[in-house]
Specification:
157 residues, mainly beta, elongated
Length: 157
């Protein structure tokens, strides 16, 4: 679920369910990682926080992936402005914070992608083929980036 909390902040809350069915070694099982990605928009550099935890307490997993800041190009594919990776965010609960920048004039989004879960309890790696993105936000020169009127920005900012 994506939510805009204020003209300058939003988040993504997502449950990643993974597991195996009728595996010869592990049988059938599943787990879920609750993932929260929060952003605070500024003028150029934007702060973010990624937190996650396994719903099975004290469960040994690692999470890795990438975060990109992309500028919308109308009907063309978006253009990556900044990116970072995270890896081995492990344990029962984990956090990763940072900032990304390079926004000037236009419409932008943050994306989470290339996620991988290493489940040590079941000795299995899951490559997740999903991209999660925030709502589009608008940046104008000399002003803080924002969600106009607390809503998603148009594709053509």
């Amino acid at each position: 679920m994506r939510t805009i909390w204020a003209p300058s902040s939003s988040d993504i809350v997502y449950g990643v369910i993974y597991g195996q069915a009728n595996d010869p070694t592990n049988g059938s099982w599943s787990n879920c990682i609750d993932l929260t990605f929060t952003i605070g928009l500024q003028t150029d550099k934007h702060i973010f926080g990624l937190s996650a935890f396994s719903v099975l307490r004290n469960y040994n997993v690692d999470l890795s992936g990438g975060i990109t800041l992309e500028q919308m190009e109308g009907l063309l594919p978006s253009r990556t402005v900044d990116s970072t990776g995270y890896s081995n965010l492990s344990g029962d609960g984990f956090n990763f914070t940072g900032s990304m920048g390079g926004t000037h004039n236009g419409t932008y989004i943050f994306k989470l992608g290339n996620m991988k879960i290493q489940d040590y309890e079941r000795a299995h790696t899951f490559n997740l083929n999903l991209d999660l993105s925030t709502y589009r936000f608008l940046c104008t020169p000399g002003d803080s980036c924002r969600y106009p009127d607390g809503k998603e920005a148009p594709v053509f900012g």
